[in-house]
Amino acid sequence: MRASLAAASLIGLFVLALVTIDAARADAAGDCAALRGTQIAAEKIGLPTQGAMIEAADLVALDAKDNINGEFCKVLGSIKPVDPTAPNIKFQVNLPSTWNGKLLHYGGAGYNGVLVTGLLNTRFFEPSTRTPLKRGYVTFGSDSGHQSSPIDGRFGLNAEALRNFGGDQLKKTHDVAQEIVSRRYGRKPDKVYFFGNSQGGHEGFIVIQRWPQQYDGVVAIHPVYNFVALQIDGNARSRALYGGLGYDSESGWLNPAKLKLLQSSIMGTCDKLDGAEDGIISNIAGCRAAFKLATLRCEGGRDTGDACLSDRQIKAVEAIDSPVEFGFPVQAGISSFPRWPILEGGDWGGLFGFGTRPKPANPPEPMKDFGLAVLSDPLVRYMVLRGARDDLLQFDPKAHAERLREVSETIDASRVDIDAFKARGGKLLLMHGTVDTAVPPANTVAYYERLAKQHGQNELDGFVRFYIAPGFGHGTGQFVVGWDALSTLERWVENGAAPGPQVMVDTKEGNRGRTRPLCVYPAWPKFTGSNVDDVASFTCVK
Question: Peptide bond preceding 522: is omega within 30 degrees of 0, i.e. cis?
Fold first, then answer.
């Protein structure tokens, strides 16, 4: 009898548990659906808008097809512009049924224009890590206030759309996400983080500089913080290679064979300088001292074939390896843009046009022939020239200095006075790869060194860490970084565990799983052991 009663009790508890689970699911579905059609008043948003509306709110079940994020409420909506001719800001906010009390704001890419969903893992994640949404974060992002391809700048003809792209959308989307969180969970978040790379890294700098009180920590990877300066540089280098160097037999253009000659010569000189001949150059300073470009000069300086470089081709390489001077300042007094890593093992892969193609047509088509022109063209054509059909190879930045400064003040995030972020306990993790040919590593080094001059190294070490990853490009390279940066940031912000050298895992096909140290700048990993695939065989040295 007692056994029967015990069994009945267990069955009753099991049934009660099922009923409770079903009720919880019903509550989650109901709470989610209740958000649908919600209007968010303009006064809830810290910058001028006509308010926002939640257009869709649907519960995504734990076992939904292709769902890797656990059970969550997917919220879609729009923020209305003040100018009725400007596009809406489209946003997505994901509300986990089991919330960890934290928010993660995702950054965009290129010129944005594509909705950032917050459903994927953070960029360059360590392979074993779960997505932030799966970990219980509320995640959110936007399209930055226009809908287009990531290299289309026509939205910049509208002043409000340009301001949104230049950073206003971040504040507006953040405030809408906060309001949605308050309505769903009945309280404010404990912590708010930002994660971005490239344009997203730039956006991480924007929130630190403009709204420092609203973010506890930021991860910024190869950030385009001086976006306007990058595009002035891209246009200038396009003109140097296409126009100034000519199209005769003595052109400065490097064909695929000549680029291979240059890259293999650099690797032959520099690969071993870090102790391991593995196709990765870690000792950048040693490489710059050791490699002599003049050793590749053709006899007499004229182009005699693919086994050497002419004087004009050497001049082209030296131009890419040198800063571009603008002749006028943009935001924060920046008047130049640093060198590119063409003599440091840069992962060109055809980004500059040469390296995968023969010399372009005369005249060239910048939007097809030259990588950096593809990125500079939208800003110059639509945000500076306001839609003019000028030949951009004839563009003179000095003649448009005033407008370039205006656009720079709208878009860029080059200021180093970030005391307010430091004072509220904010932390910044900064990372760049040595072979990045979309945003040169020297550009981030320049910002970090300006930060150190502004704050002093000891003070800076209390809230900023800068890492350089050898062999890592803009998502490509000989070592494609996998790193749990978000957990590193959490431990620093929430537990006071200041990060030192990190472990990065290679996610490149063919090299998956090998590990290296991610050293705190200016240190680099020197091979001191016996296994080039094991982090334990390397020591961070200066």
Answer: yes
Both tokens of residue 333? 């007094």
How far from chain centre, in Å, is Cα 301?
Answer: 40
**Three state DSSP letters for 210-271:** HCHHHCCEEEEECCCCCHHHHHHHHHHHHHHHHHHCCCCCCCCCCCHHHHHHHHHHHHHHHH
Cα gap 295→364, rounded to integer Å = 30
DSSP state of 114: S
Question: What element of type H or E holds 517?
Answer: strand 515-520
N-to-C CA span, the chain: 77
| Local structure of residue 536 (DSSP, 8 states) | G
Do residues 508 and 535 touch, judged by C-beta distance below 8 A? no
Question: Would you tell me how many other CB atoms lie within 10 Å of the CB of residue 407?
Answer: 22
Q: Tell me the pLDDT tens digit for each residue of 31-58.
A: 999 999 999 999 999 999 999 999 999 9
pLDDT at 527: 98
Nearest to 188 by CA among 156, 216, 160, 168: 216
Q: Which residues of 7-29 are buried (b: 16+ CB within 10 A; e: fewer)?
A: eeeeeeeeeeeeeeeeeeeeebb
Q: Is 408 a catalytic residue?
A: no
Torsion sign (Cα): 407, 411, 413, 417: positive
Calpha distance 69→378 (Å, rounded) = 36
Please tell me which residue in 168, 303, 474, 537 is annotated as part of the active site. 474
436 is catalytic: yes
Of 134, 117, 118, nearest to 70 by C-alpha is 134
Active site residue 432: no
Pairing of strands 464-469, 515-520: antiparallel
Of 179, 61, 169, residue with least CA distance to 115: 169
* Listed residue (489, 530, 525) closest to 506, CA to CA: 525
pLDDT tens-digit profile of 1-33?
A: 555 545 555 555 444 443 433 444 558 888 999
The backbone torsions φ and ψ at residue 191, rounded to the nearest 5 degrees and listed phi first, read -140, 150
Active-site residue, selected from the candidate residues 303, 436, 484, 506: 436
Which residue, 501, 485, 503, is CA-closest to 493?
485
Token look-up 């396009």 returns: 238
Cβ pair 217, 426 in contact under 8 A: yes
* Bridge partners, residue 75, by sequence: 57, 93
Catalytic annotation, pick one of 198, 282, 310, 408: 198
What percent of the chain is helix, strand and coil (3-state, nearest 5)?
A: 40, 15, 40
Digit-coded pLDDT (tens) for 256-297: 899 999 999 999 999 999 999 999 999 999 999 999 999 999
Residues composing the chain: 542
**Letter for the amino acid at 217?**
G
